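Let us practice reading a record.
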Amino acid sequence: MKSKTFIVLLAVCCVLGGAVYLIMNSEDSANKQGMMGGKLLPDLSLEDISGITIKDHENSVVLRKGEKVWSVENRFSYPADFSKISEIVKKLRDAKIGRTFKAEDKILSRLTLHGPGKQEKPEDQRGAEIILEDKEKKVLADIIIGKAREASAGAGGQYVMLAGNADVCLTDKNFRFLDKEPAQWLDKELMNVKPDDIEKVVCIDPETKEAIYSLRRPEKGKSPEFSDLPEGKKIKKSKVDDVFRMLSSFQIENVADPAKKAEETGLDKALCFEYHLFDGTVYKAYPGNALADDNDKFYFKVDVSYVAPEIKEEIKPEAEGDKEKEADDGAKAKKAEEEKAKQAELLVESKKLNEKISPWTYVISKWKRDNFIADTKKLLEEKEAEAQKPEAAPTLKTEETPKPEAETPATETPAAEAETPKPEAEFREAKPVPETEEAETETQEE
């Protein structure tokens, strides 16, 4: 082949190659422009998801959808916090792509977008991973979560990368506080009993089975009263209020291994705190020992039962006449039936709640454990001594000064009778009369 022909062919190949490159590049640019502003996972639906795995280089949590509720599979399948699950799925579904760029190795290292399982990479270059699965455990989405966008580079967002995609995406959502530990995904609200609904609290000694103390409201809306209040003592209101508030928004820290024995947890000899509600529901709480590896955490158990309260019959005057008596009896029967139905409903609810919470051994915080008060001294305080009233100064009795008789204008009064002797000044000491004066007085009288 002549050199001239070769040069022509080479030029043609270069032109064709350039054209192909331009076409491919333009298509790639068009694809990227099409992605910008679009959603990261537009077809994602919570209903299609049956499993979620979240992990980094240290921790992992596996969430699994059951027949009724989601559970934390690697935390003894304890019920999960569904609100957190729906929140993370919604965030992934609604995340919009701001920009994309090629996933080169140095970029992945800088943005911590290497997978958590890549042992050959330093820990600070590996991100977190979220894997979403359907009920057949088929992967619906696999996302690596990298660094958050620095504030100096723009207004927030997070760098992410979809598995099997060669591009890094900057999304408008932030996943900075993504939890990877199983305990953080537990449904932590155990109970929520309003203090005003509690009629009585009894603290029971585990050895004697006798009440250490009992606090009771005389009726709903009234303040609790101490049974057998010692003389000279009164209730410390702030502490008693704490006792009655204990079951309000009661949250756990974790759940313990169900295989742990009661001797290990101290629940075999735990104090019992009975909370009797006005409607007949009874909660029994048992605070145990501190964890062996954490003195700020304590074991805890609780169970629920129901004891139908006595129905106090209203005393009404007897109805007059057969019709009035019949109507009164009918109203009483109807009220009794309604009360009976309500009690049956409460019995079912208490059994259902007991089945849910009583099998577990929980872990609670120290401050919560400390509010289960058994020492009555902490609930009482000295009565303030009543201020003694000063004794009234003795009053000196004085003779009443006789009032002068009213003047009668029509009758003239003799001068001797008209003069009224003036009384001596009150409390004034009489002056002694000298003997010479006495003698003169006697002579004048003679």
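A brief commentary: The longest helix spans residues 322-357.
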